[in-house]
Structure formats: structure tokens, C-alpha cells
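Q: What would this chain look like folded?
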Amino acid sequence: MADPRALFDLTGRTVCVTGASSGLGRQAAITLAAAGARVVAVARRAEALQSLCAEIGADAAYVQSDVANQSQTEALVAEISRPFGAPDILVHAAGINTRQPADEVTVAEWDRTLALNLSAPFFLSQAMVPAMRQRGWGRIVNFASLQSFRAFPGGIAYGASKGGVGQLTRAMAEAWSGFGISANAIGPGFFPTELTQAVFSDEHRAAGNAAQTCIGRNGRLEDIDGPLLFLCSEASAYVTGQILMVDGGFTAK
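A: My prediction, written as C-alpha cells:
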């Protein structure tokens, strides 16, 4: 019997992680590099990307870019593919939550939210799928949310985009899994990131969210490591079109 640990080994794989400058994206880049992958980190903040690559070492490179700018997708894919070749694995961790009440949502903020949270994962994946298809192997991991299933105050644009990510994930699986390319999503609960700073800065609110989980606490960054590695590796070979909620049981109650 083969060593089961080999199922999670990413040696020889190349990973692209968007939104890698902070939070869960940064954690994803570090985790996948530790599993043996070469990592290309993508975000808008060069200094944070440089710090990340310095921490990972020679098997990391970065591209400073706004992935929501679809007119630059072709050029972005070329930049991402330059250091280590076309990626085998694509992790879409970039996201935004404007937290506008429904009556105050503007067209500009609505469009900005959907461009980054929903359109970017599709069009970047679409551009990278041909290389994965040629190899007969690929992994796409989107980031869904509690708001893929629940309505939160001030979250109508974000929730609409993350609900869309759920269906996008299923549609990607239908389109590409026959070529060896799986598409799944992680749905994080409440984790301490820049995106959730407003939540964690309110101790009462943070405690209330923790109490809503089955486990009784909010997420820690390292809680994402195992589920992400599973979905990016050979361990999930027969898993596609799924949303894996990493929320401590928040959505179970």
C-alpha cells in the first residue's frame, strides 16, 4: 500500500494564490509551500508580497496586480507563469466586503465587489485551464463564505457575490472535471483577517459569533491548512463541485 501521506505531497506542483498579501491568502501560500509546492503570490501590495516570499524562500515568487482588472488577465497569466511555468493549482483568496446596507449600495461598489469576488475567479481560471487540460491535472479552489448561505446585515453585495461563487464552483466542475481539473470551494467561518477586522474589533460581536459555532470558538488561520491542502492535492481526486465549510459548525446550527 502506498504511503497515505504522499496523497498530500505537492512536490513538483506550482500554485498561484490570489489575495496572498494577507489573511487566509497569505496562510494558503505558506501552507502549500510547506507541502512542497512552488508558489506564485498575487496581490496589489508589493511590500507585503515581498515579505511573504522572503519568508517562504526560493520556491516563491510574486506578481503585483489587481486581479479584478479583466483587461489585464492575459498579461497577468503570462506573468504568473514566468517564474515556474503554468500553475497546476489556482487558489482564489482575493476578496472584498464593502459592508454597505442594502439601501446604501452604490452601482460602483456593487460592480467592484462582483468584479473581484466573482468575475476574477472565473476569468482567471478560464485563462489558466488550457495548460491544466493539456497536463490532464488541475485544482481550482474558490473561496465561498458563510454568506453563500446566510444573509448578514450590510452584506447584500458581498452575499450576492459569494452565493455566486457557490454556483460558479459547481459550474466549473461540470465544465472542466472531465479533463482532470477539479473545482471546489472553501467556506470559511469567522477568521481574524483584514476583511473581518470590523467583526473582531467588537469583542461582544466576536464572542457571539464564537458561541454560534458547534466548537465554541472562532477560526484560527491554521484551521484552514488541512482543508486547503486536501482540496489542492491528490487526496481529493474524486471530489469536485463541492463547498467545504470550515466554520466550526456555524452553518450546522
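Residues 71 and 123 are 10 Å apart (CA to CA).
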